[in-house]
């Protein structure tokens, strides 16, 4: 669920949505423990949705409601090169990648020994 849609809901609707998501999350966790399902992506998505609802509720509580701009204007602003500063990619050092691969190789051999 998108945060823009959540910001348009009332407080009561947000609480209802939060309860619904928490119920779904409980059922999925219970099924996971019982071995009936392995839908970790669904659980992660529900947890993120609950966190979004908490964030929107806190924004409303603090009065930090952001004005929602129309999609057409925001797309036009990002298309102009003057609005977006140039970000250069940081070059990776060859030594940094070698140490990561060595560490991965060590963990694989440790796992095989067990």
What can you tell me about this protein's structure?
With 114 residues, the chain is mainly α. The chain has a domain at 1-69: Orthogonal Bundle (Helix Hairpins). Helices cover 71% and strands 0% of the residues. The chain contains five helices and no strands. The chain has helices spanning 3-7, 11-34, 40-62, 71-79, 94-113. Helix 2 runs antiparallel to helix 3. The longest helix is centred in the N-terminal third of the chain and has 24 residues, at 11-34. The chain starts with a helix and ends with a helix. 4% of the residues are buried. The mean pLDDT is 76.
CATH architecture of the domain at 1-69: Orthogonal Bundle
Main β-sheet description: none
Number of strands: 0
Hey, roughly how much beta strand do the residues contain?
A: under 5%
Task: From the 3D structure, determine the CATH topology of the domain at 1-69.
Answer: Helix Hairpins
Give the ordered list of helices and strands: HHHHH
What is the straight-line distance between the termini?
43 Å
Q: Could you tell me the radius of gyration in angstroms?
A: 22 Å
Q: Compute the number of helices.
A: 5
Structural category is mainly alpha
Helical content stands at: over 70%
Q: Based on CA inertia axes, which overall geometry fits?
A: elongated
- Unreliable runs, pLDDT <50, ≥5 residues? none
What is the residue-mean pLDDT, rounded to a whole number? 76
By oligomeric state, this entry counts as single chain
CATH class of the domain at 1-69: Mainly Alpha
């Amino acid at each position: 669920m998108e945060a823009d849609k959540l910001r348009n809901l009332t407080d009561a609707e947000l609480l209802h949505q939060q309860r619904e998501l928490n119920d779904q999350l409980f059922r999925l966790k219970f099924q996971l423990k019982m071995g009936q399902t392995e839908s970790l992506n669904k659980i992660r998505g529900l947890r993120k949705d609950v966190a979004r609802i908490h964030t929107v509720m806190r924004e409303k509580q603090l009065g930090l409601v952001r004005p929602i701009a129309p999609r057409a204007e925001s797309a036009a602003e990002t298309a102009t090169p003057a609005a977006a500063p140039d970000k250069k990619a940081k070059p990776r050092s060859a030594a940094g990648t070698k140490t990561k691969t060595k560490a991965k190789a060590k963990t694989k051999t440790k796992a095989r020994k067990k």
